[in-house]
From TrEMBL:
Protein name: CoA ester lyase
Entry's Gene Ontology molecular function annotations: lyase activity; magnesium ion binding
InterPro entries xref list: Aldolase/citrate-lyase_domain (IPR005000), Citrate_lyase_beta/mcl1/mcl2 (IPR011206), Pyrv/PenolPyrv_kinase-like_dom (IPR015813), Pyrv_kinase-like_dom_sf (IPR040442)
TM spans (from-to): none
Gene source species: Sphingomonas adhaesiva
């Protein structure tokens, strides 16, 4: 079976918040993102960097993938962040406001053979240059695109509203470019903290639009993301039916077969295997 790592729920927290770091070690999210960028005030940047490195070295996050979001390389803190994170053992370094492949190349030079890069896609320039950024993945160890919907909406001057319709063409381009380059694609955050139905609806959009998971800002958002991005019992059953049908001797060598009244092709078998791999990985937690 294909091995796959679920990234259904990726929780940001300010690395300057010791209580949140402690809490993250117990929360049911797949990814923890210690933020050094927008959630941290300028006068706390150095202390937050030290706290993030100490948290990574201290461990205790179990199955959770521990990612650190650095400040952009062109800020007063970016170079020191990358120097500190190079040998830290973080699962990835998330770079904000990546707008060109050159930013990834520079960050890779600073990190050496350190952590893989994840890139925030949150500027208009990045959207226009997405294929070039995605093409730099192999040379720079880029493994994921993470959408920054707040920054994007600000730059575009659009109003996403409840439907996020103005962002749909952009989000679709991010998914396309990520798939082209074999990258993980994580949807942007939902700013609504106290209404799980709203969070769940956004997660559902992200799933339907092709994302692997959603970035989150509060523990109360985790359950909805995990629920939505975990294959449902019906999806698992359907995937198993497809696998079983293709395994029947009578279907050997066939590219298209009938399963429960529907045409199913080898591409659906591939999808089915992916669904089962995710379900299996989630169940192993
Ligand atoms: C948004 C918050 C500032 C809300 O804070 P607050 O109202 O104080 O939270 P609560 O009182 O409801 O907290 C309850 C308990 O949960 C813990 N908590 C809260 N948030 C987190 C978290 N993110 N991770 C871990 N634990 C968290 C509190 O400590 C309480 O615990 P306890 O003491 O046991 O009761 C706050 O939630 C927050 O800071 N969220 C993260 C903000 C952040 O990281 N922002 C930056 C990333 S988002 C972004 O930049 C997106 C992108 O770039 C874009 O452009 O869109
Ligand atoms: Mg942002």
């Amino acid at each position: 079976m294909t091995t796959i790592r679920p990234r259904r729920s990726a929780l940001y927290l300010p690395a300057s918040n010791a209580r949140a770091i402690e809490k993250a070690r117990t929360l049911d999210c797949d990814v923890v993102i210690l933020d050094l960028e927008d959630a941290v005030a300028p006068d706390q940047k150095a202390a937050a960097r030290d706290a993030a490195v100490a948290a990574v070295r201290g461990g205790g996050f179990g199955h959770r993938e521990l990612v650190v979001r650095a400040n952009a390389p062109d800020t007063p803190w970016g170079a020191d962040d990358l120097a500190a994170l190079a040998g830290s053992g973080a699962a990835a370094v998330l770079l904000p406001k990546v707008s060109a492949p050159a930013t990834l190349v520079e960050a890779r030079a600073a990190l050496g053979d350190g952590p893989p890069l994840w890139a925030m896609i949150e500027t208009c320039r990045a959207i226009v240059d997405l294929p070039a950024i995605a093409d730099a993945a192999g040379a720079t160890g880029l493994a994921a695109f993470v959408v920054g919907t707040n920054d994007l909406a600000k730059e575009m001057r659009c109003r996403p509203g409840a439907t996020r319709a103005p962002l749909l063409p952009v989000l679709t381009q991010v998914v396309l470019a990520a798939r082209m380059a074999g990258l993980i694609a994580l949807d942007g955050v939902c700013n609504v903290l106290d209404d799980e139905a709203v969070v769940e609806a956004e997660c559902r959009q992200g799933l339907d639009w092709g994302f692997d998971g959603k970035t989150l800002i509060h523990p109360a958002q985790i359950a909805a993301a995990n629920r939505v991005f975990t294959p449902s019992a019906a999806e698992v059953e359907w995937a198993q039916a497809i696998e079983a049908a293709f395994a029947r001797p009578g279907n050997a060598g066939r590219g298209a077969i009938r399963v429960e009244g529907k045409m199913v092709e080898l591409l659906h078998l591939e999808e089915a295997r992916r669904t089962l791999a995710i379900a299996h990985a989630v169940a192993r937690r």
